[in-house]
Specification:
With 459 residues, the protein is an all-alpha fold. Helices cover 74% and strands 1% of the residues. It contains 19 helices and 2 strands. The chain has a two-stranded parallel sheet.
């Protein structure tokens, strides 16, 4: 009884914090432009006509933008309350999948604190309402759909209505093409596994159908093509780039963000690897393997910070706007350094996960999530707004690092290291709050520092 009361108070606290913060944060950017469009209040007909026309002249995110415009046209308090509820539901669903009903309170708090370490700066880059409904809402609704599906599978009586609701939620969620790409590998594997086991494939199949329909909707959208052409003014040399150059640019923008941008979730993920290694009491070689990813992140971020302080060595941390391959000789030192540390980090992380995860099913899910998250970032190299879109395009991969951290800490750590992780996560939340305070007081100056995409145009 006492545990339930404590958990309920935590949910209430999280809801109040999220709702109050969003209510107090001022509107700007896309939010102001969108609210001016709906000065007369809620108008679903106008909302529908707007997203319908956008499909032909701007964007295939029809469902996502419909929800965004809906909240832009309602009183701000509605958006704040709904977002607070969705954050709590996200915590509930993740806790349901990661922890058993009899798990200790510390396991629940790991989930709560890990979610609160999500970089709120991502939600700032195009306006609170616009970015939150476009990037966080799809994550929340996709997790809710997964929860409903699992409940329906475990129930003796299958509910068709639940399948329909899950399909609608996934149809909305995967209307963000980045999330569709992120989820595609895992969903495809789920469909194949269910088929091989001769089980009902409709549960995984409806998610696959939702992804497929959205990808078709996106590919054939005239608006996406017109928007790409209109956005060439952001990146005049984009149309001359080859596929390899665009892939190179997508890789490097990802490396810059996670290795030189003080990204808390990837640091927490690396710390969780250390705690798991220490909990499992592995041999010295295994201990070293678990420490290297965290050490690399500390080294890369520390070197960039030191370089900016002493104003020396900046050539190691910049990149060519179009990727290293278009001017490899000029950026030789930076190319070798950035590709080397990122490849080493990724290879060692994969080896560590393969050696320490117990079950094959765990490996399939985790590697599929990582692969999908990386694909969602690499695809950004194929749009001229890669730098204009800023940090919000890292949302899905960053959230995957949070999920993996939660799983590793709750599933593999001893109670002692779980207590340590509570302290680490609390420090990260305090740091996140401090950065958010600076964000609101300093604005875009901080964004330019935090995203850390330091590129030079072709010299």
């Amino acid at each position: 009884m006492r545990k339930r009361l404590s958990i309920g108070l935590v949910y209430l606290f999280v809801f109040c914090i999220i709702a109050t913060f969003l209510y107090k944060a001022p509107l700007f950017g896309d939010d102001l432009a969108n609210t001016r469009t709906f000065t007369g209040g809620i108008n679903l007909g106008k909302d529908f006509n707007l997203v319908y026309n956008q499909y032909y002249n701007w964007s295939s995110r029809t469902l996502v933008n419909f929800v965004m415009f809906f909240f832009e046209s309602t009183p701000k308090i509605v958006f704040c309350i709904v977002t607070g509820i969705l954050v709590c539901l996200t915590i509930y669903v993740i806790n349901y999948f990661v922890n058993t009903p009899h798990a200790r309170f510390v396991d629940f708090m790991i989930v709560v604190l890990a979610i609160l370490t999500f970089p709120i700066i991502y939600m700032y880059t195009a306006g609170w309402i616009a970015t939150t409904t476009t990037y966080f809402y799809p994550i929340a609704f996709s997790l809710i759909a997964l929860y409903l599906t699992c409940q329906n599978v475990q129930s003796r009586v299958k509910n068709t209505l639940v399948k329909i609701v899950a399909f609608v939620l996934w149809l909305y969620s995967f209307n963000n093409e980045q999330l569709a790409v992120t989820a595609l590998p895992l969903v495809c594997i789920a469909v194949v596994c269910e088929f091989k086991k001769k089980r009902e494939v409709s549960n995984a199949g409806i998610a696959f159908l939702a992804i497929t329909l959205n990808l078709i909707w996106m590919i054939f959208s005239p608006g996406n093509k017109l928007r790409t052409i209109s956005d060439y003014h952001y990146f005049p040399g984009f149309r001359q780039l080859s596929v390899i150059n665009k892939l190179d640019m997508g890789i490097l923008s990802t490396v810059q963000h996670y290795f030189f941008g003080m990204n808390l979730p990837i640091l927490i993920f690396a710390i969780s690897m250390v705690f798991v290694t220490l909990s499992l009491k592995k041999e010295k070689g295994d201990l070293l393997l678990g420490l290297i990813p965290f050490a690399i992140l500390v080294f890369s971020n520390g070197c960039r910070f030191l370089s900016s302080m002493v104003n020396r060595g900046a050539s190691f941390f910049v990149m060519n706007q179009t990727g290293f391959l278009t001017n490899f000789c000029y950026f030789l030192k930076a190319a070798i350094f950035q590709y080397f540390i990122s490849i080493i980090w990724l290879v060692i992380t994969i080896i560590w996960l393969n050696r320490n995860l117990k079950q094959a099913q765990e490996k399939v899910v985790i590697f599929s999530l990582l692969f999908g998250g990386l694909l969602s970032r690499l695809m950004m190299g194929f749009t001229p707004t890669i730098y204009v879109s800023a940090s919000r395009t890292c949302t899905f991969l960053t959230f995957i690092f949070i999920l993996l951290s939660v799983y590793l800490l709750c599933e593999y750590c001893t109670q002692t290291f779980k207590q340590f992780s509570i302290g680490v996560l609390s420090i990260c939340i305090a740091f996140n709050a401090f950065v958010t305070f600076l964000l609101l007081s300093r604005g875009r100056q901080l964004i330019e520092l935090w995203t850390a995409w330091s590129f030079l145009k072709n010299p």
